[in-house]
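Revision sheet: structure tokens.
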Amino acid sequence: MARTPAPGTRDTILTAAAGLFYEHGVRAVGMAQVVEVAGCGKNLLYRHFPSKASLAAAYLALVRQERDRSCTEALRWAAGPESQLTALVLEIADMVRRPRYRGCAFRNYLTEFPGEDDEPARVAKAYLADTRAEVDRLVAECGGDTLLADRIWLIVNGLYAGPPSQAQVAVDWVTELVGSRTPPPD
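Predicted:
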């Protein structure tokens, strides 16, 4: 008779995998490492996640939930699209300055597995597309055009890849770009 897994087993496995995947990369981590760090059996791991791809997709979905929550909170306190664009970039800048920051999980996955169209790649691509759409929406609301949206998106991409010491430059630059779009007061 099969044992019933303890409550929270799936979350324990996912948390272990997330830490390993983020620190070492999805390709470099074997399922045996996940089993060891999670403290579970191989059968239990595969009962919750039938493949490494399904585990990687769950990891990226978890990261997306965390990113969505963090961005929503940053935008919540900003009044108007100009302030929201700056708040969004500031939230990313704060993240990249954290001591254990190792890059954007979505961009990292797509770099590790270029050209893939598996479930994890679809999760990563959807997040990036949705984030770009949010930038486009905010730029349009502040009267900007596609060129401004492209410039801000380029800054965001550079922020994820660049040295943390330059994070404030990205925030200042976006603030300057959207500020120049604001009509002068009457």
